[in-house]
User: Fold this.
Amino acid sequence: MSDVIPGLLIYAKSLLGATIQRDPVQIRITEVEAYAGPLDPASHAFRRTPRSEPMYGPPSRAYCYFTMGLHWCLNVVWGAEGTAAGVLIRAGEVVGGYDVVRQRRGDKISDRDLARGPGRVGACLAIGAADIGTDLRSVPGLRLVGRMGSAPAIESGPRVGVRLAADEQWRFWIAGDRTVSAYKRHAKAPSQSDD
DNA sequence: AGGATGATGAAG
DNA sequence: TTCATCATCCTA
Assistant:
């Protein structure tokens, strides 16, 4: 049962260098985080609720959620139906549709920061409630396109801003990429050597 | 029914 | 470091 975790982590890493796109915007994924559903207290799907229901559905669908009254974030559901695991797209590099992204984000934000952070990824792609449950393999609309070419060098570390399971090294990024977001530990996360 | 709280981002 | 801002979930 707990065999899901190795597979999930491999999948999460495989997403680095892939692109998530909605014509004409294309984002090359540079940073992801894995969430292991009922096995993972940090996952929205730790409990099955109406919000987390899409995570319990089939893989390769979008799980999108609204947070802090402002931001939409995008996950790719992974694993057989009922597994409820997924990968959060945390950051990327805008490689297509630059003008449309600029139109959405204004001119104050730097190129580097355009999709640096999960809320910004959502803003670039205009993610919203309508995208929840979308099949990311279908050609029209929001779409995930696998990486071409060789695998990038990958680094890993703890996930950003989670209070529970704060020490799991389930965040992955492309080594040295400048669009990777900064690490911030949740203020209330128990310290690593806390009893 | 009501309150606490975010898988955040931007400003100061 | 503070705060905007609100859907969701927990508690009662």
Remarks:
- The first helix of chain A runs from residue 4 to 14.
- Residues 38 and 46 of chain A are 4 Å apart (CA to CA).
- Residues 47, 49-51, 65-70 of chain A lie near DNA strand C (CB under 10 Å from a C1').
